[in-house]
Amino acid sequence: MSAHFELSIATHFSAAHSLRGYPGDCxxxxxxxxxxxxxxxxxxxxxxxxxxDYKIMKSELKAALEPWDHYNLNDVPPFDAINPSSExxxxxxxxxxxxxxxNERLRVSRIEISETCTAMVTYRP
Length: 125
Description:
Blueprint: E1 5-17, E2 30-42, H1 54-65, E3 71-72, H2 86-101, E4 106-116, E5 119-123
Parallel strand pairs: 1-3
Antiparallel strand pairs: 1-2, 2-4, 4-5
Helix pairs in contact: 1-2
């Protein structure tokens, strides 16, 4: 799909994590106010002239983040088995949002995750 439209919303969640095996401070438990941007791409609009209703994007993203918000990510699957790095968080959130939103007309195109105002990762397939 070559997108003509890309819609986005932003939100945040708070969670702690530690990076197992990391040779530095991030191996210790610490927290972030993670900032998230969700991007959805589509070529065509619906009968109302919308790619997707922002309300749907917001509610689905909120539901996807609920199991992580105000938790230690190391205790929450899949991060109990893989390191809760920004990269892994972005990929897992992308996969979850794709399950929730992708259809024949639109798809999640990318996820951006920021741990701090100066450190961000973008995941796209």
